[in-house]
Amino acid sequence: MEKISLTALARQQLTTARSASSGRSAHTVYGGHEHTLRQTLIALTAGSALDEHESPGEATLQVIEGRVSLGNSEASWEGSPGDHIVIPRSRHSLRALEDSVVLLTVVKAVGPHA
Question: The domain at 6-107 falls in which architecture?
Answer without folding.
Answer: Sandwich (2.60)
